[in-house]
Specification:
alpha/beta; about 400 residues; two-stranded antiparallel ribbon; 6-stranded parallel sheet; 2 domains; single chain; Rossmann fold
């Protein structure tokens, strides 16, 4: 039994139908709310109608910022923060996937502090204070875990750099996780966000800060993803699978809030920063086959667990063999969920791989990997990702 700490200040309201609680939830923190979302999606119109009705019934005034984009930028955050300040909002409600929730967090910081959200990244001297506006989230995808983390990922387009605010003051106060809101998510996004859930959970097991508590949640999340992701892709309205993935996403978010991620996320963040047209889950799928083969010998226990979850016939094999086979088994899983990609599939130029390798080692994620790569090893790893 080892020592560990565990901290989670977010109140989680989980289950089908919980959206109807959004009005009284927001009203508990303020009466003038900035609603942060992406652009209008017709399939989500009934959800927004219900949400706005709930807010009106709770006498909450709503100012709507609908400018969120995938891989939200500093300009996006600036626009949202300006709207928040102009309208004197006192609470921020992020509704959507990870981009909307991360944007809500970053806006809550910029609207209440001097400078821009980029000034408050995790490695800078100035950090978000208690002046940060209270944040409420409603997740509509099962992927990023942002509803329960202290992370807000943003991109500086001019610098081609993707980084993050990382501070306890950006934990959402309350998170509503209603699986009914995920049934309209198309298969491609279901796959990309679902694979992100797996990556959060598995990388938290590899992280030096992993604990008995996070491992317990991670293993449950991984099992749920492997059992339910393909079903949700094929039967989007299957509420059992949607609920399982929503719970897996929440568990994995709790894991990374207390442990963290490793090499694949460092590479994925670099890809997203330099090539923002690639979804985050896709950036992970791009590099996972190379990452597993680079790492498995230095994390036999975790990889043998993965191999046996994916292929029960490995149960009687030695751990070393199960760990090695996990690489092929995960490749097969990526192919089953149609996430078998190479860098060339996204028109990422091979002559920029040196720059991409250097950018992959900017964030500290790679230092948490069981086997820490050199720059040359990172370049070789990326070269093996060019095509599949």
């Amino acid at each position: 039994m080892t020592e560990f700490n565990y901290y989670q200040p977010t109140e989680i309201r989980f289950g089908p139908g919980r959206l109807n609680e959004v009005g009284e939830t927001v009203a508990g923190y303020g009466k003038n709310c900035l609603l942060v979302t992406g652009s209008n999606i017709p399939s989500l119109e009934p959800m927004f109608t219900q949400l706005l009705s709930s807010l009106r019934e709770a006498d909450v005034t709503v100012v709507h910022f609908d400018g969120v984009i995938p891989n939200p930028t500093t300009n996006t955050i600036k626009d949202g923060a300006m709207m928040a300040k102009t309208n004197n909002v006192d609470v921020v409600l992020g509704v959507g996937g990870g981009s909307s929730m991360d944007s809500a967090k970053a806006i809550a910081v910029e609207a209440s502090h001097d400078g821009s959200a980029w000034d408050y990244l995790f490695y800078k001297n100035t950090q978000p204070t208690e002046k940060t506006l209270p944040i409420i989230t409603v997740s509509t995808t099962s992927g990023t875990g942002s509803q329960v983390t202290q992370v807000a990922v943003i991109t500086n387009s001019q610098k081609r750099d993707k980084s993050a605010i990382y501070h306890p003051n950006v934990y959402p106060r309350i998170s509503i996780v209603d699986p009914e809101l995920m049934i309209s998510v198309p298969p491609k996004i279901t796959a990309a966000t679902g694979f992100d859930v797996f990556c959060h959970a598995f990388e938290s097991m590899l992280h030096p800060a992993a604990s008995l508590y996070t491992d317990l949640m991670a293993k449950e999340a991984i099992t749920l993803v492997f059992c339910h992701l393909k079903v949700a892709m094929e039967k989007p309205t299957d509420i059992v699978s949607r609920s399982a993935l929503a719970w897996a996403d929440t568990l994995a978010g709790l894991c990374i809030a207390n442990a963290g991620v490793t090499l694949p996320h460092g590479i994925g963040m670099a890809i997203g920063g330099m090539y923002p047209h690639v979804m985050h889950g896709e950036t992970l799928a791009l590099n996972y086959p190379a990452f597993t083969r680079f790492t498995y010998e230095d994390a036999v226990s975790q990889f043998s667990f993965l191999g046996r979850i994916l292929n029960g016939t490995l149960g009687n094999d030695p751990d070393e063999k199960a760990a090695e086979n996990a690489c092929d088994e995960l490749d097969n899983f990526l192919q089953r969920i149609e996430m078998w990609y190479g860098l060339s599939d996204f028109d990422i130029p091979e002559d920029e791989l040196d720059d991409l390798a250097e950018q992959s080692l900017v964030l500290p994620d790679y230092k948490n990997n069981p086997k820490i790569p050199t720059l040359d090893e990172t370049k070789a790893l990326l070269l093996s990702c060019v095509s599949r």
